[in-house]
Design a protein that fits this description.
This protein is of the alpha/beta class. It has two domains: 137 residues, Immunoglobulin-like (Sandwich); 289 residues, TIM Barrel, CATH 3.20.20. It is 20% helix and 22% strand. Strands 10, 11, 12, 13, 14, 15, 16, 17 and 18 form a nine-stranded mixed sheet that branches. A five-stranded mixed sheet has the order 2-9-7-4-5. The protein has a four-stranded mixed sheet with strand order 6-3-1-8, with no helix packed on it. Helix 8 links the parallel strand 16 and strand 17.
Length: 464
Amino acid sequence: MPLPQRSNLLPALLAASLALTACSDSSDEPPAAPAGPASLLTVRSAAGPEGQAGGMGRVEFPVFLDQPQDSDVLLYYRTLDGEAEADSDYLAQDHHLTIAAGTTSALLVVETLGDAALEPAERFSLELRVEGNARLAQDSAAGTIANDDSQCDTPFSKDPNPWRIAPGDDPLNYAHRGGVTDFPENTLYAYYAVAEAGADVLEMDVYQTADNELVILHDLDVDRTTNGSGQVVDLTLAELRELDAAYWFVQDEGTPHDAPASAYTFRGIATGEQPPPPGYRAEDFRIPTLEEALRAFPHHLINIELKPDLDGRGNYEQQIADLLLRYGRTTDVIAASFVDEAANNFKAVAPCVFTSVPLEQGTGLVLGSQGDGAIPPVPEHVAFQVPPDTSQIQQVPDDFYLRVVTEDFIRDAHAANLAVQVWTVNRCEEMLEMIDLGVDAIMTDRPLLLASLLDTPPEQRRCD
């Protein structure tokens, strides 16, 4: 589809771009002679919606130093075309940004040009150079322009089902909450780290705050993981932002509250009491929003667990649907829920987004498939998300036990064109068992362990 004419629009947009660049230090003088150790300068890749047809959007690149400097640091950047083309999809830039002496962060903005074309996300890149007492973490950063024109009034097609793996292939590595025992769960730090380590899917839980913002957190309250207390539904986003989401994290253990103080190695980064690791910010250790995750991980598969809308006033499912559409995330996301009501509400407002079978519906299908039973067609979902057995399901009485993931169940699910995604598998032996059974995905608190197994040739995989 040809792009709409912009002959009258472009001069105004280019003028706006020049006005924006005026905010950067226009001096050509180099910074003062450096003193002290060089700082690491990081420019994060980022995504942003393109904007409405005839309007503008923006891609915001976080820029930060790992320590402040006594003199200004200048970041020179130049946009380079990818699938996105300058002056058609975004406004070209060849400028510099100043990180003032004594500060550590800035925001690099590239303006995008909206249109009405239905098209995939498009990339461009930034070529980077630095002057001053700093060194670059990388010499380029990627920008993704998300298409925000998609309609979502038609059910998705799962022919073929993209969440099924081919026979003999390894399962997807689902980083449960970003890796509960590997990293501080549900933080941007965890998701960045586990993505770099090779996880295929970033799994995150989404709650709604008192002021109807969407945040990533697993529990109803903040007590287990942060230095605060109270339920998410009663706290505003600003109040949540003040908390340390890595406060109780202990490496390889999760969030015990009785470990020695020295074990809480990430404690205080979020609140500025200790510096973050190189390449990270204090913000990466706070409770993030869903939009922040969509900006940060435009090319990673994401699993969003829908939680109940506790106050019933925030239009929870519609908000999530609108945000996913704004970032063009329909075919690379699964929306999952144990709450059938939340799953059904979401399905009603976002039929184009992939979903998994919710608890009550799934229970009936699993029980009905036992023995010679079969699973009927389930066109409205793409996957079962199930535990190996019923002992992990809190809603099941202790005196009832059923092995869920068996060769028979996997065969029945695949016959109904449903992927089998198994949670929460943390022992090496059980990971190998699930791989041998041929499941499509393994959700684990230990994605680093699973990654090491999957990186090992099949004939050499074993548990110490």
